[in-house]
Amino acid sequence: MNKRIFVFILTLIPALGSLVVINKVEPFVFGLPFVLFWAICWVGLTSLFLIIANKLDPSNKEEQEV
Description:
Layout: H1 3-20, E1 28-29, E2 32-33, H2 34-56
Antiparallel strand pairs: 1-2
């Protein structure tokens, strides 16, 4: 499977999940409706994933001083 297609499919999971599966007001999680909790979680997870990708990207490595 092409790497781009795999990444595209992975990005669709939270979007489709939020539209189909979790479109409910109840249950409440930490006092928030579940839909709002789901959106906030994905904002945080996206930031975490971007930080990890930045650390793993070889083009972002600083050149070692001689």
